[in-house]
Amino acid sequence: MRLKLSSSLERRVLVKNKHCCCICQNDGYGKEVLVHHINGNNSNNVESNLAILCLVHASQADAGLKKGKLGSGKKLKPDAIKLYKKLWQRKVEHEQQHRREFLDLKERKQFEILFKFEIHKTMYLILSLKDTDKRVLESFDYLDQFIAEDFTSGIDIRTILVDAFSNISFHNFHSIEIIPCRLAKSIGELLSYYSGVTNPTSSKEKYIFNECLIILEDLGEDAAKYEGGTSVLKAVCQAMFDFAEQISWQDLVTEKKKLLSTFEKIHKACSEYKHGDVGYKKEIMNRQATVQEFLNNTKIVYEEGRIEALRFKKFLKNYKNGRK
Ligand SMILES: [Zn+2]
Question: Which of 80, 81, 232, 279 is the 20 to 30 A CA-CA neighbour of 249?
């Protein structure tokens, strides 16, 4: 069965690629594009497996996935697409930084004030609502939409957002579930725009990453200790695992380590659960098992990513030699 691509993931990949085919690049502006699964597995919806291609290049990519020498048309191999995607996304990011530098200062300030106002207003609304109020989810959806704006407008919206999320998480969540669960999801969304590879020295990226992890750690530890926290615990672990999967084949040693240690801290916090009476020891074990499973899966994707990165490096070396 083909697993559906989530709309937020689709939006993210499109934004990062400027809605252009990663092979046509700027020349493809306005062309019809689709989200292509690089390894041919349409259910493998991780970001590293998705590329934006125009219809012509998508059909060449499909041909490149078929074994044998059938057909005489042009073929695009998965590794080649990965390379094009990497180079194109890097270019898009540079363009964005360039625009940031040259955007009219006054105009940028006005936009920033407007975004800040909207984000803060929504943050206070969330803090004033009951956990079960349906406006909670709507408000988080609204905030999530700003994440991609950071890329398109060149304004530091993610920094404003992470501070707002941090404010929300600072409030006491014992005994409530929907807000912290949804918050964890938004943090995952924010992390999915992390560009520590193309932009390793950026203090903004580092700040966002660290803040996100602190929020997840707080939410996770809190949920681990208190009654009814199981769904929050899962949401937190899921957000961390998704990020681990995203960065698995990249050379982000510090980030990977931090993620593992956050899992371990949350795992440890489970032992402080003391509610209920006779059943509480079993509950501790259940919670620890939940966290442990995510932790194990994270280690597995790290290892898979390491192997994939090695293979890709080999391909790059051959590619460069071939061009000499
Ligand atoms: Zn194309």
Answer: 232
